[in-house]
Amino acid sequence: MDDAHLQELKQRAPGLAAIYQTGRDAILRAGDLAALEQARVQVLGRKSPLTDFLRSIPGLPPEQRPLVGKGGNLIRREFEALVEEREAELKREALSASLAHERLDVTLPARPFPAGHEHLITQTMREVEDIFIGLGYSIAEGPEVELDYYNFTALNTPPSHPARSAHDTFWVIEQRETMPEAVVDADRGVLLRTHTSPVQVRVMEQQRPPVYVLCPGKVYRRDSDATHTPMFHQIEGLVVDEGITLADLKGTVAHFTHEFFGPERRIRVRPHFFPFTEPSIEVDVDCGLCGGEGCRSCKYSGWLEIMGAGMVDPALYDFVDYDPETVTGFAFGMGVERMAMLRHGIPDLRLFYDNDVRFLRQF
Amino acid sequence: MRVPFSWIKEYVAWEGTVEEMAKVLTMSGTEVEGIDRVGAPREADNLSRFVVGRVLTKEKHPNADRLNLCTVDVGERHGGVRQIVCGAHNFVAGDVVPVSLSGAVLESGLRLKKANLRGVESDGMIMSEQELGYEDESPGIAVLPGEWVVGDPLQRYLPVAEDVLELELTSNRPDCFSIYGIAREVAAAAGLDLAPPPITPAAAFGGAPAAEDIAVEIAAPELCPRYGATVIRGVRIGDSPAWLKARLTHAGMRPIDNVVDVTNYVMLAYGQPLHAFDAGKIRGGRLIVRRAAAGERIVTLDGVERTLDDQMLVIADVERALVIAGVFGSRDAEIDERTADIVLEAANFAGPSILRTEMHTGIRSEASNRFEKGIDPHLVPGALDFAGRLLAELCGGTVAPGMVDVGGVPPAPTAIRYRPGRTDALLGYEIPASEQAAILRRLECAVGPAGRTAGEAEAAGAGGVVPPDDGDRGWAVVAPTFRPDLTREVDLAEEVGRIAGYARAPETLPRHATAGGLTREQRVRRAVRRALVGCGLDEAITYSFVADDALTPLGLPEGDARLDPVRLSNPMSGDQSVLRTMLLPGLLKTAADNVDRLNDPPNLFELGRVYLWDEPIPAPAHAAEPGAVLPHESEAIGIVLSGPLEPEGWTGAPRPADFFTLKGCVDALLGAVGLNGEYVPLGDAAQQAPYLHPGKSAVVSVKGAGETGVLGQVRPDVAAAYGLEGLEVYAAALDDRFVAAALQVIAFRDLGAYPPAAQDLAVVVGRAVPAATVVEVAHRAGGKLVRSVRVFDVYEGDQVPADKRSLALRVVMRSPERTLKEKDIAGVRARILKALEREFQATPR
Q: What is the pLDDT of residue A176?
């Protein structure tokens, strides 16, 4: 009932207006559900002033009856609505009051879901693979127990090549279908691959250009200290196509670096030597710790070496019957553990192979 | 290699800092790993406190017998005469000596102060070579040449402080294994002038020609293309001067005596290793360069007797081998303090042979390290001249005229066709032809027009004329003899690229589009890993090699292919001597390692290769000798559960892992690639998996691929043998056979428009009846309305007979056409119960 309505009622039926105001106050004053029920009986019950009033209508002059009757009913409906509203309000208050007593210690540890963890090497390899899949590369794999031919000879590293002395190769005691009489050292033919490059040769033997492959996998070298483990993981890439340039190599490496280490990182390309690439380069990324200023982690150079790479040496094409006058290519290789160490700040390579779950579960 | 900064500056006109030189070298392909700052600290003009002094008086210390009291003139600038107490005796009044003044900070960090030594003031120190950092042990102070000017800073004559560039050299650049060679790189990369090679001969020769004293015969020319020798008579073996000791020490070699030091100095400076023989010990006056006899023995300078073979080269006299050529000398002809006449060798040995000898003898010397890379035979005469001059100057000898030179000058290199445009195409950006020609010339290549011979190219290139770019005919370029790595056009392209600098290269991507992606096997592996990680397992990556006896505790039957591993011929240790044939030993050990570290017993998996000889892969004919084979490598999956999958928490004790947890993992991994595992008791396979509990283990197979692995509890004794004593351990070993059936496209099954109905029924059956069989029979008997049958409870106990158990089955049924009626449901129930009764004598409970 708005104010205008109430004023009109006061003038024309002052008794009814008084009933309304008293009843309304009673309902709104009710402080709990019991009091509200009491108020409801008091205001709307059979003995309430309103009921008495309505009952008295037949005794009124006929011209007053419609107005007073209509007003009375209006007030009844209003009272009912007020009671309902007040009831909801009181219930909400009661619930809030009871919730206020329920308490959890939210600082207790969570109930853990038993989530497992892929090894950081796996995660790193997959991430690198996906970057290159995005560039249209396939993922190629090959044997870890490999022939000297694929590991060295076909990579332009014949037995007399001085670069071989840099490789600390694990050799395998061969089994032959027909064992020759004497196994002398000259036929050191089977080894644990020292890099994943032999996969590149196997791919080129199987496939004509264009070749866009990434070769991830385990490799082995006889070395063991904080920065060397006798087994580690490498990822190499090979592209052979018409018109491939060193600028393409640099752009590819830059793209990878930005995806893997972050778009703000810079790369630097230095000349180097590998028997299977010409020109050969090494790639550095600026040190993430000092931003290139020089710190202990980058040996005060501001740069961290991440990759060896180069243009495929045309001598390799002889082994796989590609024409060096029509195709060129590039290859690059990186150590997976090193990538992960640089990115996550891991100090010791051996942590990867201790498989301590406190390490595994960090990543 | 260690390159002292002050030494290299003798050969190249460098005016920048050592850091700037390091950058030039690094960016042109000679990687500088670090700069070693040796000697006295440079801060706050500390170096000015090291000066040249002259001893004026030398008397015995009044209060100490073993000390001398000296007055030393250190020059007006430094306060004139100082009184210095000195413990050494190897000098006299009048000698010029190095002095560090009070206030100087020595290499050790010690700051010199005026001191009172036994009642006498001592102001400064007369320095020994050890204190200068040139030698490990020196008998006394350093006596310097008398003509050095008193009061001058010592650094002007001797490196009191030196910056040493530490280089990582690559095996293709034998020319870089010398200070002069590095100077040439700096000059080329920075566009500076290079001094002529330091090979000035002795000022005078004397006596009979060298050939009168020594004859040389090369019996194995294929291993020794050139052998030069000269004779220096009347040397006095003694100590080298301080400057020479400084040079050698800073370059990383130990001073020995003046003759050996000169040979090492020449090698370091010029790149040609030398060997000095005591002429008196060469029997027959004849050096013979020959292959060793098989089994021939030699006692090398380190006192070790070595057995040689006929692939190795020796320098012998008429009676015995004196030197393993280019690698290591013997005691028999070495110089000693009585030596008077020297035969000096400068020879060229074939790199591959030296490399092989190094690998077989395990000896690697400064000389062999250079020879193995193939050095320039043209260095021979210059090195002899260079060393002869120094021996005359420093050891008082006289160089005999007419060096012996056998084998002579090798043929001149041939001209290489070089197309500048081809280099641009390979690099992907343009370097002007004039710049390319200039770079090649700075590297001492001759550049001339196409079709010229080497000599003509050289002549045509004189004066810096850029030859016309003749398109496909290109230029004729002749590489210098010290660059055996430059034989092809692409080798020259690299030189141009690296000296021009790769910073100029733009960053582009290959323009062709190709379709890449993963193979089916690769996708399966990713899915398997994801699934097992989803089960809560952590992935381990263990070494592929294991100990020979790593499998012993498993008790595999004799003749099992897994007991014949791939063996390494040169393992690093017994623990890593064979390649693994199974993943489980490595995983069990990893679990045990974690327990040892007081980690919670872990749950691990590994996906990796195992290596077996049983189905060997023949090597391609072009890649190996006939009959060569490679082992079969296949991807295997191992799982080891040693504790609860949930970590221990405050919310209640976690449930321990059991067989069914393990089975859940295997189900999950197969499910991830669209397969359902079928499990049967181990049965006959128990022989193949004797390490598993015979009653709590199963064989898993998949439709379309058959058996693909085993799973179950690891026998407690086996678990204990791997260090997991007292733990209940479960393990699965899967091979890659399931991959063939994996990644089938899963066909959609209709969800059904009509409501399902569920019926629970419990039946009592014999304990030996597999639940899976009961389910299968129930499913079949129920008919086509049955959607699924699932065991939801198993009861064994008082309520059923001892040899029986109760299985509670929930049967869900649904019709695709209508809502099921009561009688449909009752019918299914009846059919199932009847079938179970018929098949298993099951009774409803």
A: 62
Q: Rounded mean pLDDT of B291-304?
A: 92
Q: With cut-offs at 50, 70 and 90, classify the pLDDT of residue B460.
A: low
Which CATH number covers residue B829?
A: 3.30.70.380
Which amino acid, residue A318? D
Best mutation target among B423, B496, B625 (most A Cβ atoms within 10 Å) is B625
Query: Tens digit of pLDDT for each residue in A279-303?
Result: 999 999 998 888 888 888 788 888 9
Distance in angstroms (rounded) separating the CA atoms of residues B277 and B282: 8
What is residue B459's predicted lDDT score, i.e. its pLDDT? 62
Contact present, B345 and B277 (Cβ < 8 Å): yes
- How far off is chain A from B20, nearest CA to CA, in Å? 12
**Of A147, A268, A311, Cβ closest to residue B619:** A147
Residue A261 pLDDT > 80: yes
- B126 φ, ψ to 5°? -90, 130
**Once rounded to an integer, what is the mean pLDDT over residues B529-538?**
96
3-state secondary structure B40-60: CCCCCCHHHHEEEEEEEEEEE
Element holding B460 (H helix, E strand): helix B454-461
**B-chain residues near A189 (CB < 8 A):** 619, 624-625, 628
**Is the pLDDT assigned to residue B454 strictly greater than 80?**
no
B14-52 burial, b if ≥16 CB within 10 A, otherwise e?
beeebeebbebbbbbbbbbeebeebbbeeeeebbebbbb
Cβ contacts of A77 within 8 Å, gap of 6 or more: none
Q: Quick check: bond before A210 cis, omega within 30?
A: yes
In degrees to the nearest 10, what's the CA dihedral of B552, B555, B558, B563? -40
Distance, in angstroms, between B603 CA and closest chain A CA?
Answer: 9
B598 CA: distance to closest CA in chain A (Å)? 10
How many separate domains does chain B show? Answer: 6
Q: What are phi and psi of B67, to 5 degrees?
A: -115, 150
Whole-number Å distance between alpha carbons of B717 and B600: 21
Report CA Rg, chain B.
Answer: 41
Contact B625 A187 (CB under 8 A): yes
Q: How far apart are the first and last CA of chain A?
A: 67
Q: What pLDDT is recorded for position A357?
A: 95
Q: Is residue B511 part of a domain?
A: no
* B568 assigned to some structural domain: yes
CB under 8 Å to B591, separation ≥6 — which residues?
A: B601, B602, B604, B640, B642, B722, B724, B729
Strand partners, B20: none
pLDDT for res A350 = 92
ipTM of the complex: 0.87
Q: Which residues span the domain enclosing B396?
A: 210-406
| Per-residue pLDDT band at A182 (split at 50, 70, 90) | very low
The model carries a pTM of 0.85
Give the CATH number of the domain where residue B108 resides. Answer: 2.40.50.140
SS (H, E, C) B584-602: HHHHHHHHHHHHHCCCCCC
